[in-house]
Design brief:
The protein is of the alpha+beta class and about 140 residues long. The protein has five helices and five strands, in the order βαααβββαβα. Helix content is about 35%, strand content about 30%. The chain has a five-stranded mixed beta sheet with strand order 1-2-3-4-5, with helices on both faces. A hairpin with a 2-residue loop joins strand 2 and strand 3.
Amino acid sequence: MIVRVAETEQDILMCRSAIQALRPSLTDELYNEAVRLTLEDNRQLIFVESEGEAAAVAVFETGYNLFRGKYIYIDDLSTLPAHRGKGYAGVLLDWIFDLAKKENFDEIHLDSGVNEARTDAHRLYLNKRFQVASLHFVAKV
């Protein structure tokens, strides 16, 4: 499996269905602008292709702050339902870990919703050495 960085409009379009599997409110009409704004905000989109489509995608940012040091934060990790259980998400996480080691990042972070549908994702994160480190609070404005 080869991980690719989405660099062209064609790559970004190929990733749409996998992103929408995680973010269904991101309609076709909103997709291009939302991804453009996301990538302009110090993020990368990576994917694994299978059968002419992005089977799995990850969106992550890099940065530095006082709490985390030099970090990677994974915003989105999604696999198309037809491709789940084939190891694609694990390959994307391994690619991110390799990047973190190569570029001397201190930590990799992600948040994940808590419900029954996320059980397999949580199993993957724990198998990849992620730890449950905090509660994440949100206040809608």
